[in-house]
Description:
The chain is an alpha/beta fold. It folds into 2 domains: 4-180 and 300-384, Zn peptidases (Aminopeptidase), CATH 3.40.630; 184-297, Alpha-Beta Plaits. The protein has 10 helices and 16 strands. The chain has helices at residues 11-23, 32-44, 105-122, 142-148, 151-154, 208-224, 264-284, 304-318, 337-342, 370-384, and strands spanning 49-54, 58-64, 72-78, 128-134, 157-166, 174-175, 179-182, 184-193, 197-198, 233-242, 248-249, 252-261, 288-297, 300-302, 323-324, 345-351. The strands form 4 sheets. The chain has an 8-stranded mixed beta sheet, with helices on both faces. A 4-stranded antiparallel beta sheet has the order 10-12-8-13, with helices on one face.
Amino acid sequence: MHRVDNFQDLQSEATEWRRFLHQTPELDYRLHKTARFVAEKLASFGINHIETGIAETGIVALIQGEGGDGPTIGLRADMDALPILEVSQKPWSSTIPGKMHACGHDGHTAMLLGAAKYLAHTRNFKGTVALIFQPAEEDGRGGQRMVQEGIMDRFEISQVFAMHNWPGLEVGKFSICDGSICAALDEFDIVVKGKGGHAASPHKNVDPIVIAAQIILGVQTLVSRNTDPTESLVISVTKLNAGQAYNIIPEHAEIAGTVRTLAQALRDFAERQIEVCAKGIARAFGAEIEFRYRRLEPLVINHTEGTNLALKAARGLVGPAAVDDKCKPSLGSEDFAYMLEARPGAYIRIGNGPTASVHHPAYDFNDEALPYGIGYWVNLVETALAAGN
């Protein structure tokens, strides 16, 4: 098991990769320059099995160990940026206005490239490592699409792992938990259908704005008064659109929002009861509603065996005291969930230090975390695919 000192000599090169990627961010599936950069680096490491064009710009590269036959494990890094104007004022800030790596995917990619270089040189494991470079995580569809395009079966992946930087967690520390670690994400739309007319005669109309306001308040009680307060359910109304004039009560009002939860039963409850609540309120005022609910990303559920492997790899790198094995789950979502639905594995957090939060225009990945991420990946591979087993 390697300590982090073994990977310090890779930090300078990995920092160069990371900062280049940070300066040249690309969005969703349109990662042509990023994918080309990654594929060229992988080839330069002596990796000769590199498949590109998966989910448009995704990549899967295979490294064969020299310890004999064995299973294949997948290591996933996301590559896409966000449509945000960067304000960090770093020398390596984005050169493309309105686009930036505000979630650290540049760091994730650089860490997996660093691990690829090390593993391609040492090959001290049996079986195969599948390096998965994924597009469109922020879109919420890239992971699903790579699974749908058959990467798990095509490359015979038996377990799959991912890592995400975590602002506020000290550099050199990791955190993980068994079971749900990221929330499911759903969206809903409610159209309130009232009766418009002159604002001077509200008694002759059915005002959809007033009804929408009551629905917004009503759905909040599904969290505060209808679910166990020790369980996690967040219903956020994020859009309210109605009317175009000061003196006209409109025909319609539109409400939209998100639902996040760490339990499948609460997800079912929210989908059912938001509609029941909205319909009941609307009908009490003489209106009707149109309701749409879309399930987007599933729960990220760490599997016990994968969690234990991740813990062993991280503890071997930084010591037990620097690894939290009972972290609080996040209500954020992650499309790595689709890969964990297809195969067992685990998702771990790596400390990014006291930086701005992800998705903030002042955020920047902390390059001091690079050797820790590289070391974690190497320890994980050599633990899961131990050549002596």
